[in-house]
């Protein structure tokens, strides 16, 4: 079983997780125009971008995207995130059978994981899967989708390979999750400026704007943009915010966004 290592980031028990999700959804209920909400929550994304900080900071953004994605009814969810602890060449897929979450374990689609390994020459390095960029996504997946998952961690990887994996997963009726935060530890004005490159790159599906983007999951961002170009997907920014929205510290800011691709 792939154990949960970062429960402090989102809730040590199921009650805490469900209370946070209810809180995020109440904010949506109170602030999103009802007609707009009816349109938004009928969409069926093929892929999404979600942040991966502690839920107190980035959970609202991620939750908004997953709330939309629950319509997609995929066969599985393929979660792709950057390695923060272990530098290595390429990517790794876990072959554990289950993934622990506070609200019950998710099944891991080991057969599909093996297909990815074979088709794309991906490694199985279990030690690199002690990774928060993917783990913080799993309670949302359990709550909203509850389908088998595949977890892919990349480090020094070619974005073209990530693109090919995304295309393969979408073709096999998977929902793809690209995990990334945006700029880190700039003042708010600088963070907003740098993050605007990332947001425009996503909105316009443009590698040109991505050049000015600073994101820990930039390789994943490039992969999904390349995939969206090939598959003629349409992107929508769901939410953007920074850590300053929570802690009011405008000197050391981290940016977060969520987006969907249909």
SSE string:
HHEHEEEEHHHEHEEHHHEHE
What value does the average pLDDT take?
96
The unreliable regions are none
Q: Roughly how much helix do the residues carry, as a percent range?
A: 40-55%
Task: Give the amount of beta strand, in percent.
Answer: 15-25%
Largest sheet: 8 strands, mixed
Structural class: alpha/beta
Which value, in Å, is the CA radius of gyration?
A: 17 Å
Description of the structure:
It is built from 11 helices and 10 strands. It has helices spanning 14-31, 34-40, 55-69, 110-120, 132-135, 138-144, 159-171, 188-203, 207-210, 218-231, 244-247; strands at residues 47-50, 76-82, 91-93, 98-99, 106-107, 149-154, 174-179, 184-186, 235-242, 253-261. Strands 1, 2, 3, 6, 7, 8, 9 and 10 form an 8-stranded mixed beta sheet that branches. A two-stranded antiparallel sheet has the order 4-5. Strand 4 (98-99) and strand 5 (106-107) form a beta hairpin. Helix 1 (14-31) packs across helix 3 and helix 7 (159-171) crosses helix 10 (218-231). The mean pLDDT is 96.
SSE inventory with pairings:
Layout: H1 14-31, H2 34-40, E1 47-50, H3 55-69, E2 76-82, E3 91-93, E4 98-99, E5 106-107, H4 110-120, H5 132-135, H6 138-144, E6 149-154, H7 159-171, E7 174-179, E8 184-186, H8 188-203, H9 207-210, H10 218-231, E9 235-242, H11 244-247, E10 253-261
Parallel strand pairs: 1-7, 2-6, 2-7
Antiparallel strand pairs: 1-10, 3-6, 4-5, 8-10, 9-10
Helix pairs in contact: 1-3, 7-10
């Amino acid at each position: 079983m792939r154990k949960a290592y970062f429960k402090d980031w989102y809730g040590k028990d199921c009650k805490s997780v469900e209370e946070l999700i209810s809180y995020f959804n109440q904010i949506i209920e109170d602030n999103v125009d009802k007609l707009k909400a009816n349109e938004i929550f009928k969409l069926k994304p093929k892929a999404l971008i979600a942040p991966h900080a502690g839920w107190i900071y980035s959970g609202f953004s991620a939750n908004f995207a997953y709330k939309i994605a629950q319509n997609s009814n995929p066969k599985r969810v393929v979660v792709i995130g950057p390695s923060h602890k272990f530098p290595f060449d390429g990517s790794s897929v876990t072959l554990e059978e289950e993934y622990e979450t506070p609200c019950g374990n998710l099944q891991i689609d080991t057969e599909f994981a093996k297909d990815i390994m074979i088709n794309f020459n991906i490694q199985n390095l279990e030690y690199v899967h002690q990774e928060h960029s993917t783990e913080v996504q799993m309670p949302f997946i359990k709550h909203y989708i509850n389908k088998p998952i595949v977890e892919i961690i990349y480090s020094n990887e070619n974005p073209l390979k990530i693109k090919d994996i995304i295309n393969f997963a979408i073709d096999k009726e998977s929902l793809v999750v690209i995990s990334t935060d945006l700029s880190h530890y700039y003042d708010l004005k600088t963070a907003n400026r740098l993050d605007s490159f990332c947001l425009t790159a996503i909105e316009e599906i443009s590698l040109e704007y991505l050049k000015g983007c600073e994101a820990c999951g930039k390789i994943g961002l490039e992969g999904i943009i390349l995939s969206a170009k090939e598959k003629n997907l349409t992107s929508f920014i769901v939410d953007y915010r920074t850590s300053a929205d929570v802690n009011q510290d405008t000197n050391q800011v981290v940016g977060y966004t969520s987006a969907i691709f249909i």
